Amino acid sequence: MSKLFVVALDTGNGDLKIKSDAVPRLRVGGVLGKYEDAKGKTKTAKESNVDIYKVEGIDQEWVVGHEDVNHFRLKPLTVAGREGLLRYKQQMYTVYGKIGLVKALGSKRPSKVVLVTSTTAKDALDSEVVDYLTELFKDVHKVKQNDEKVLTIVQEYVPLSETEAALYDVYLDEEGFVADEKIENQDVLVINAGFGTTDISRYNGLEYIKLETETINTSYLDVIKLLKVYVDSKLKKSIPREEISRQLDQQINQTEKKFVYVEEEVPGFNEEYYKAVDSAFNDLFADLKVIVEDPDLYPRIIVVGGAAVDSIWGKKFKQWSRRVEIPADPQFAATRGMYNYGKYLANELADNAAASEE
Q1: Alpha carbon distance 300, 140 (integer Å)
Q2: Tally of structural domains, the chain
C-alpha cells in the first residue's frame, strides 16, 4: 500500500487553516472573490502572481483570501455563519473547501489522500451534517489552479469537532503516536474560543461526555460587531466586518490596536477595542459559569482558538481558573490536532494493509 498523504483542513468562520504533509502551516483569510479577466492593461502593468481557481461543476473563477481578493478590488464574500447544515450546503463552502484541499497539496500531487476537516462541537454530533460532509469530501475532486487541472482522490475522510481536534494536539504527536499518555486517565475540559462560536467539550479518559450545553453563541465575532458600530459612526459609512477583522488579525501580537481607512486612522479605536473585548467576554463568561460551575473539578482545561491569545481573551481565561492551559499558537491548535489524528489514521490503515498481506 502506498503511503497516504495527510491533509488537515480547518474550514472555520474566520480563516481557512491548513496543515499537510507538504504544507506545515498556512492561514488564508476566510473570504472568496469572483474573478473576472481584466478588459485591458496599461503598458506598465505587472503580471499578477495570484492563483485563480475553478471548481468542476461551478461556472465561475475564484480567488481566496483577503490579500488576493483585495489585489483585484473584488467584493469579499464570506463563508462565515452559524447555520449548521445550511452553512455546509452553501456553494461558497464547497468552493472554499475544494480550493483549500488544492492549497494543502502545495507542489505535491499524491495519488490518494486522508482528509480531516473541522466542525463545531454541535455539528459533529449531527448525523445529517456528518453524512453530507462525507458525501462532499470523500470523492474525486477536480479543480483548475491557473492553467493546471488538479485531480485529488480522497480515500479516507473524517469530520472532526474542533474541541476533539484540540485534544489530539496534546495527546498525539505529528507522526500520529501518543505524546501525552496522562490524558488517557484524565477528565479534561476543552474550550475552543473561535470566530463564530465558543465550543466546550468534556473528555474523561478520552471518552466523550456530553455536557448539557456545548456551544456558546458569544464569540470573537461579537467583538468585531461592536467595533463595526463604532467605526461606522466615526467614518459615517458602513465598513465590512471582514475589513475590521483583517486589520486586527495583522495586529494580533500588538498591544496598541488601530483601524485605518484610506490612510485615515480612526480616533479612539484602541480604547474601543478593549471595551469591546471586555464586553463580549463578560457575556461569554455569564454563560460559561452556568455550564462549568466549578472549573477546579477538572485537572486540565485546554483553551484554544483565535480568541485564546493573550491580546484577546487568553489572560481572562487564565484568571477564571488556574487549571487553564493555552498552547503556543492557540489559533492553530485544532488544525495541528486534526493533522495528528490524520497521521494516526494513516498509520492504522497502513498497519491493517500490511497485516492483510501476511
Answers
A1: 41
A2: 2
- Rounded alpha-carbon distances, angstroms, from residue 23 to 27, 61, 82, 107: 11, 24, 28, 9
- Rounded Cα gap, residues 177 and 355, in angstroms: 19
- The answer to whether the beta carbons of residues 192 and 162 sit under 8 Å apart is yes
Q: What per-residue confidence (pLDDT) applies to 1? A: 47
Q: What percent of the chain clears pLDDT 90, i.e. is strictly above it?
A: 76
Answer whether 0.85 is exceeded by the pTM: yes
Residues 294-318 have a mean pLDDT of 94
- At a CB cut-off of 8 Å and minimum separation 6, what does 225 contact? 241
Longest CA span, the chain: 73
The grid coordinates of residue 323 equal: 487549571
Same domain, 145 and 253: no
Measured in degrees and rounded to the nearest 5, phi and psi for residue 91 equal: -60, -35
Residue type, 232: D
Mark whether 134 and 274 lie in a shared domain: no
Cα 202–184–326 angle (5° rounding)? 55
Q: Is residue 203 part of a domain?
A: no
What's the average model confidence in pLDDT over 43-47? 49
CA distance 61 to 52: 7
Query: How many separate helices (H) and strands (E) can be counted in the chain?
Result: 11, 18
192 burial via Cβ count (<10 Å: 0-12, 13-18, 19+): buried
Write out the three cell numbers for 182.
Answer: 496522562
- The domain that holds 225 is classified in CATH as 3.30.420
Band of pLDDT at residue 41, cut at 50, 70 and 90: low
Question: Does any domain span residue 222?
Answer: yes
Classify the C-alpha dihedral 149-50-32-66 as positive or negative: positive
**What are the grid coordinates assigned to 66, written together?**
483577503
Distance, C-alpha 179 to centroid of its chain: 23
Q: Which of 8-22, 36-50, 112-126, 137-151 has the highest mean pLDDT?
A: 137-151
> Mean pLDDT, the chain, as a whole number?
92
Question: What's CA 88's distance to the chain center, in Å?
Answer: 14
In order of 29, 116, 169, 301, 338, the CA distances from 335 in angstroms are: 15, 9, 8, 18, 5
CB 214 within 8 A of CB 200: yes
Task: Please name the residue that has the C-alpha cell 487568553.
Answer: 314
